[in-house]
User: What shape does this take?
Amino acid sequence: MKMRRRKMMRVAAMVAWCAAASACAVGPTYHRPAPVISDAYKEAPPEGWKAAQPNEGIPRGSWWEVYNDPQLNELEAQVSISNQNVIAAIAQYREARDQIRIARSGVFPTVTASPSITVTHPSSTTARSSVASGVSGAVVTAASGTVVDYTLPVDVSYQADIFGSIRRSVAASTATAQASAAEIENAKLTYQAQLAQMYFQLHGLDGDADLLQRTVTAYQQSLQLTQDRFDAGVASGADVAQAKTQLETSRAELLDTGVARAQYEHAIAILVGKAPAAVGVPAAVLVMPPPPIPTGVPSALLERRPDITAAERNVAAANEQIGIAKAALFPALTLAATGGLESTSLAQWFTLPSRFWSLGPQLAATLFDGGKRRAQIDLQEAAYDASVASYRQAVLTALQQVEDQLAALRVLEQEADVQRAAVAAAEESLSIANEQYRAGTVDYLQVITTQTLAFQSERTLIDILTRRLTASVLLIEALGGGWQTTP
Assistant: This one.
């Protein structure tokens, strides 16, 4: 009884030692790399600076509602649930979560059981003989009969995580899953922004089509005026031919806008996860300028941008891989135990005398590998440095994108003011040219030139408004898609 207690105490002490040893871990402690970031945007007035704390998978929010367009709201809401690329990103996140479960299983012991019933019938012609040295003769025993062996072994194996390899594997898988969660939000933001851009570009074409339709009507009136003057002998046939050419050219341009509009409409259908035939976007002319977009401070990008969060989480995962590689330098301790029941009689199989067990630790170490493990550490350190550079580059790219769109909105707003003045001047010039042509003081070529300038000026104004709206979408995307409207 005392012997059994001593054995149990040894076993308990071994388990306690393994648990205490598991509290150690080798490898670097993770610290978030310091990004290259400014206190304020160059293209926006300074608003102060605050420290930022990245948070994976921040919901981007219904940022498109700032445009107050019900049709756009309806389309955008379908991207998150029907876009196939978003669905694929969600599936990849589920895979990453499963990798956490797989890595975490290494924390627990592995228990296996392999019950068996073995029937053995030896050959009757087989004999065992043993001859003792210095003894004359031999003793021969014939083996006969059938033997049935009933076995119920249970094996328990536990690898002590002395140097933190398993825990770092769990941490690496967790960081990868967090990066995958951020990639879901990044995919949503990317495709929602693409849809909004295409939506405004489509309606920009509607504005061009509306302008061309009004231009065709005006050119029809000019053609009728020229024809009447030709019939009265005041205008030449060349004037009539020029008026017809101008009219038919505008009609052709009007028809040509339908090609690009149809392509935008088809692309929008794919973004919402539907067949092109299932989606139709009613025609509408853009009239409202883009709403004001609060930019915040540059450090807020670390919280808002899901791609930056994903890059930072990849750095954390790479850091854990260094620890895993360093843990391979040390021995691996495995505690194995086997027990069960074994008998040649079914009636005695589950009795106490049929029990058996064994217990013992196993230490495995690689004595020589030609520098493989050291090379793996160097490999993971290089991968970590690359991930840090990618993270910092992602921050710099985000800053550039915000600055680009802020500059675009500022310049385009100024350009729109100037272009509106140009449109007003072109309309006044066209009105004067028409009056002069009716009075016979100028030829029809002057009218055509003035009409072309007026048309181009107004079309440029429509294009500027489209560019301003798409630039505002790109700014929202660069900012991460969501912001706080109150301090």
In short: The radius of gyration is 40 Å. Residues 46-51, 129-143, 483-487 have pLDDT under 50 and may be disordered. Residues 301 and 479 are 6 Å apart (CA to CA).
